[in-house]
Amino acid sequence: MASQDQMIYIVETDPFECGRLMARLIAMNLAAHPLSRAEANETMTKADAPSCAIVNLWPSGSRNLHVRELAPYDRMPVIGIGDDIDVPQAVEAMRAGVFDVLPRACSDDALFVTVTAALACDREQRVVRSGLAQLRGRYATLTPREMEVLDLVVAGLLNKQSAWILGIREVTLQAHRCKIMEKMKAASLADLVRMADRLRLPPWSPSDAAVHLVRSRLSA
Known about the structure:
- This protein has two domains: 3-135, Response regulator (Rossmann fold, 3-Layer(aba) Sandwich), CATH 3.40.50.2300; 141-219, Orthogonal Bundle (Arc Repressor Mutant, subunit A), CATH 1.10.10.
- Helix content is 56%, strand content 14%.
- α5 (144-154) packs across α7 (170-184).
- The chain is of the alpha/beta class.
């Protein structure tokens, strides 16, 4: 019985080859599901378990990579499959973001190793994406002022420097900083800096200080 806690999608134009590939995967206790190219776009974005896709990237004996075929799988490892794949084709596919490339006539061992590696990769990426989503959720709870303070703190400015730029008292800035640490669930300043890096926040620059100064003086 194939495990249903993960899924391998097969996008193959040849029904015979699709059926044969499915039979091989099921014999390895791997759940497989065939998809038409039209179904791929909607199905791939809704996959809620570790998954990968085996896609015929060179349909009808074409020697050119159909890069557009990769569009539905931007968050899922893709294993390209085809007949008589040469090195230039494999290199082109890998550069386009394909996880790995296999000839249709590959051994069961090669198929199993590649598929399980792709599933492990997707499982790991799902954990990363989940953590990033939580981090973005915490960042969204910050007030506009707290976001300004965060920018200055992770840029390495001292409290007195940040307070001067924002036109507030140092004790007020320290209160904002404590609130930021609490909302972001940061254990230390180094932890907060790593979070900002993961969020890809725009780096603070000295030119931003002039903007803050003007705003603070106008609102005073």
